[in-house]
Amino acid sequence: MMHRLTRHVCGLCMAGGLALAATLSVAPAHAQDTNTPDGIIYEAEFQRLWEQKGEEWTAEDKEIQDRLQALEKKFGKKPNIIHILWDDMRMGAVGSRLYTDISGYEAPNLEKMARSGLTFTRMYTEPSCTPTRVAAATGRLAVRSGMIFPIFPIHRMGLPASEVTIAEVVDDTYHTGFFEKAHFGDQEEGYVHNQGWDEAIFSLYNQFAGQMFTKDAESTGFTTAFSEDGYDKKYFIDNSFRPLNWMWTVEGFEGQKGREFSTPKTFAEYQDANKKMFQRTLEFIRKHAKSDKPFMLQWWPNLYEVADQDAMRPFSTQNGTASAESIKRMDVKIGQIMGLLKELGISENTLVIAMADNGPMVPIHPETGQNGFFRGGKNDVTEGGIRVPAFAMWPGVIEPGSVVGDIIHVSDLFNTFARIAGRYDQIPRDRVIDGIDQTALLMKGDGHSRRDYVFTYKGPKMGSIVKQQFKRHLPIGPGALAGAEFFDLYKDPREEHPLMAEFLWAWAQFDAMKARHDKQIAKFPHTPVARGEPYTGVVRLADQ
Amino acid sequence: MMHRLTRHVCGLCMAGGLALAATLSVAPAHAQDTNTPDGIIYEAEFQRLWEQKGEEWTAEDKEIQDRLQALEKKFGKKPNIIHILWDDMRMGAVGSRLYTDISGYEAPNLEKMARSGLTFTRMYTEPSCTPTRVAAATGRLAVRSGMIFPIFPIHRMGLPASEVTIAEVVDDTYHTGFFEKAHFGDQEEGYVHNQGWDEAIFSLYNQFAGQMFTKDAESTGFTTAFSEDGYDKKYFIDNSFRPLNWMWTVEGFEGQKGREFSTPKTFAEYQDANKKMFQRTLEFIRKHAKSDKPFMLQWWPNLYEVADQDAMRPFSTQNGTASAESIKRMDVKIGQIMGLLKELGISENTLVIAMADNGPMVPIHPETGQNGFFRGGKNDVTEGGIRVPAFAMWPGVIEPGSVVGDIIHVSDLFNTFARIAGRYDQIPRDRVIDGIDQTALLMKGDGHSRRDYVFTYKGPKMGSIVKQQFKRHLPIGPGALAGAEFFDLYKDPREEHPLMAEFLWAWAQFDAMKARHDKQIAKFPHTPVARGEPYTGVVRLADQ
Question: Do B366 and A97 touch (CB under 8 A)?
Fold first, then answer.
């Protein structure tokens, strides 16, 4: 299968994995590239942490492994894994009435999840959808695969085949399912069912495309480009400029040709497609609950129904926006999933991670725009863009109602899921891995993260560096005065008071972090994004 | 006693109270001034609410009264009341790790109080210390007694004798104590022990004065005015400009002359005075715990130790500011009070309200400056200035871990304490009362507030009006375009997106609210603030 061909694992460094031939032009990993016994080429900063804490973490890992084995013995299989990842949300938008009361709505099921499990207060993502989703799937910053911005219709680009996803890592040891928003682009090699998932209905682009390239959106003034007869053609010469022949969602099974699932022409069609995808999500859980094999489910729901305002009425919140209504609707679905896990008796053998993919779209006020603790939103590398609501639930393992103030990054889920699935040896050894195994954080709670830093990119360029409570913004132009760049996130979570004299010590430290990061990139260069004709390998709806 | 002389209760309107002769030049209350059976002249807006909900609330009050009587039967006396009111804090600075993790410190005892009791998410105050404290003590907006700004040394003004405080309302039926920061000014008639409290050690001004008019503050560059030998006197002519002969705290017992308690010359003296005042607070509780009479305690602690940075080292938080350290220290004291109530077996017969008096001092970054959910801080009439962290604890009565999203105002505590103390009939009937009885909100929780509005003043002028989720800012100059004034607080808690077209309906409604408010003021004019020589009726330390 396509996704297997390009996988490369360095035999020298592997601890129990399978060595495959290298097909990429990157240097193979050798002892000098990694300092961890597992042979993974972690990002340079983590290797420095390992130097300081490796011994302690190795001992801790034995304890973790014992607990995982005890769980496997108890339940007769590895834990199921559910990753819920939704769009554009500020930290504080869900998780507790202490947050949501400020905005006049409730999301009781996510609040219940937080009470049953844990709340992350420093979960970092990339600043926009495609990058975060790629980082979650590959354990690598999206810049490493060229997936540096949200892909829109018809960009003719997508996730390259050579990336190894978490579905490929768990491979046949898990039933794998993917439903709703992938946003990995329109290239065949990047389709979810070509990237390791057994079964999927997924969108190539985002949820706004699904809503806004419709007649309904035109009628509300959102767009004016898509109805065949929706606009005056008097000056109309170029018939190819508007992406009229675009495609939204594809249904796929591993090893098979995909089938176009839905490209809505109306808001009702958009809602209908989402409804069906969610039904398939529930069916997937039900189907595999009693299987000998565990399952891994990526349910990455399309959040925010905004194109057809009327369809949201009557509003059930005091807030009275379509976005609050959308959050409530998603929350109901999350409640259904939690209820189903309970009904099927698999709650205690299922890890659920639920989170947003980046900060809110601040310019779309008030639909997703307001921010609270932090400044900025989607596409910003201030905390408002990259620090999101996030929760984990695993009854019997995670302490109910706990809060962790540690730094964690979305790419860490790749390693953590691999560890929990017993497939850590399948993580590639021929490339830089940004993710870090955070199983200890889930199992032991506050203070047990193995990360104290985050590199954030804005497109192809590094935008900011977070280290502990300190943060440096990287100016786009030539070096500015230090005073404009350095922040203390505890004292100034909104990054409104840059500090100069107080941070003279930090200039060289952040410079060195970036230099080590860049040096590693020079040796292990980024993979080019996949580019080519869109929608190959998919049977269009018209042809089905 | 001084505070009795000027109290006036209109015999026509009183339900069970004692009629006294009028000594103020305001019109007495008559049927046309009030529409409530208790004869209180509530602010005009509440009278409109009563028209709509009076019947329902009358029925609810019977239920409340039954519960209060059952409690009194059970415990053999009325409930004790503790009001904890501290300085300058943004909502979200305490109460849950979901909030405090953002800033890198913990306040575990206030978190415990929130878990044991309830969190208010819309507790409104006045925008600065003196006004909020006066509103809490008198149940009236501070503008009605001329106490419109924080009183500093030596302003020669203070709370007028004619104001009736909550201590005067509960009178001899409660042991009443007041410790730490009053900030009612420097006039004898306004001293706490002349305003109804049995026993008090209280400051005339704020806590910064106590710290900053010291040699230690001079040595850190905060102030340069107060040491006799602390500055070059070459151009020094006027010996009266710097308030060298000021006084900070007074110890007083009802009916007796006061005694200067402490006017610190060093930071150590400031800390020592606070320590002693807190010890007296604990002694007060211990002394009256087993008494036949309940007690009412105003512990309004001095928060933020900032003048002597060294005295705060080493910092025990990740945040690493003196303000975070101060919050932790206050939190420890709150834990001591909670522990003492438990030790004495009186937790279940004691209502504790704990809250800040206004938003943070944003200009003093990062000491108290950062803001989260809201825009602005102390002295602003945006939510950042007037919406504060607030909690209530009353085991067995208040549901543990509850959250109330209702609007409540600090002046409501006056009425609520009066109700709980069985002294509602002692609330004056000759003046406008802004407070509203919120006992139902405490006992029945979310959705049971009787207030859906707040008038906020900035000095003598109305600054903004909150009604439900809507808010109008009142421009200082002549009428601006509606677009600059109107906000939806659920959609835009930071008041960053004024709305115009969406609020055309609201222009006239807010105008009418203000017109009714002003009409009532014309009939019941403000009381002039007390003015005169400072520190009369107090024996100076030098003379003791």
Answer: no
